[in-house]
Each structure stands twice: as C-alpha cells, then as structure tokens.
C-alpha cells in the first residue's frame, strides 16, 4: 500500500515561546525528522490565518500569514516536503483540517500519487491533527496517527487522550514511530 506522511502545523507559534505554544511541540520535531526519510511522499500543512479572523475570537492571534510565527520550526527538516498546504486562510472559519487547504487540494495531491495510506503527525493532537485524520478517513484513506510525533493544546486536561480515543473509535490506527513497518 503506497503511503504518505502528513506533517501538521509544525510552526513556531505552536512551539515553546510561540503565541499558542503546545507543551512538547518541539519534542515532536525530533521524532518527525527521523520519520521523514522513511516516506516517499511527504507533505505538510501550515496554519495560515488572515490578521483578522473569527478564529481569533477563541484563540490568541497566531500563525498570521507571512509572519515569523507561521514559519516552520527552525529544526524541522523541510527538504523532502513535496508540498505545503495552507489552511485557516478564510476569516470566517477555523479551517482546522489540512484537507481544507485553499492553495491546493490535499486529497487530489494524494490521489494523483496513488497514496492509499496517510500517516499523520504534528500539532496539535486535539485540533488540527484530529480534524485532518478524521477527514482523511472520511475521504477513504487508511489513516494512522503517530502517537509519539504529536502534541496537544490540552485546553482542558485530558483533551489529548480524548482526541486519540475519538480517532481510534472512528477507525484511525494509532502507532508509535517504532511500530511503523519499513
Ligand atoms: C490549531 C488551534 C488553533 C492546530 C490551529 O494547528 O491544531 N489549534 N489553530
Ligand atoms: Zn489556528
């Protein structure tokens, strides 16, 4: 089965020191860097908001298009990322899922490359990772979340566990990086 790696929102604002820092967001980067060479197809999403958006009624301002906070984490190895998908670009919705990207369709990109299985990692487990994984599943991809290559906002304690349970109950496979077959 042809597989791809989706790296969700590994951006400065979601890492320590950023506007919406996710605990251990930077720790996931090390795991992700080791995963990248194992996939033939690697794509990434970026949270990419206009300066004013309904999104900022519920979140601190973060990942504004073209600002430093929206850059990839400086340690993320981006060389093999084939395409970046920008989402959250509308000022009227959250756009959590990478499948809502507005620059290019992620679903079309994967189908054109005959990808059947999508491995999802990145930030944040309880929002964009979850939304992207559940959309992938609905679109017919076998979907796997790499549990040691994600980190959660955890606005309410336990949101990370609940998000992983919801994904698993819907049919997303949960694996650690070490369990991914060669
Ligand atoms: C995200 C909250 C707000 C995410 C994006 O990438 O998971 N979370 N915007
Ligand atoms: Zn956002």
Overview of the structural elements:
The protein is of the alpha/beta class and 182 residues long. The protein has a single domain, classed as Isochorismatase-like (Rossmann fold). It is built from 5 helices and 6 strands, in the order E-H-E-H-E-H-E-H-E-H-E. The chain has helices at residues 25-35, 55-58, 106-112, 125-138, 159-170; strands at residues 3-8, 41-47, 83-87, 117-123, 142-151, 173-175. The protein has a 6-stranded parallel β-sheet. The longest helix has 14 residues, at 125-138. It is globular. The termini are close together. It binds pyrazine-2-carboxylic acid (VGL) and zinc ion.
Strand order across the biggest sheet?
Answer: 3-2-1-4-5-6
First-to-last CA distance? 12 Å
What helical percentage do the residues reach? 25-40%
Can you tell me the overall shape? globular
What share of residues are in beta strands?
15-25%
List cofactors, ions and other ligands. Answer: pyrazine-2-carboxylic acid, zinc ion
- Number of helical segments with 4 or more residues: 5
Class derived from helix and strand content? alpha/beta
Q: What's the rounded overall pLDDT mean?
A: 97
Low-pLDDT stretches are none
Largest sheet: 6 strands, parallel
Radius of gyration of CA atoms, rounded to a whole number: 15 Å
Number of discrete domains: 1
Write down the CATH topology: Rossmann fold
Q: What is the ordering of alpha helices and beta strands? A: EHEHEHEHEHE
| Strand runs, count | 6
């Amino acid at each position: 089965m042809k597989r791809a790696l989706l790296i969700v929102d590994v951006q400065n604002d979601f890492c320590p020191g950023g506007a919406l820092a996710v605990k251990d967001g930077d720790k996931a980067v090390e795991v992700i860097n080791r995963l990248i060479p194992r996939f033939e197809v690697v794509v990434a999403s970026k949270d990419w908001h206009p300066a004013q958006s309904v999104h900022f009624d519920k979140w601190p301002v973060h990942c504004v298009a073209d600002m430093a906070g929206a850059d990839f984490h400086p340690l993320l190895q981006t060389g093999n990322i084939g395409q970046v998908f920008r989402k959250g670009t509308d000022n009227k919705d959250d756009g959590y899922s990478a499948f809502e990207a507005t620059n290019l369709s992620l679903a079309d990109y994967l189908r054109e490359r005959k990808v059947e299985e999508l491995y999802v990692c990145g930030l944040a487990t309880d929002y964009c990772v979850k939304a992207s994984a559940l959309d992938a599943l609905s679109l017919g991809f076998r979907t796997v979340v790499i549990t040691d290559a994600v980190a959660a906002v955890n606005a309410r304690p336990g949101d990370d566990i609940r998000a992983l349970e919801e994904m698993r109950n819907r049919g997303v496979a949960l694996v650690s990086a070490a369990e991914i077959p060669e």
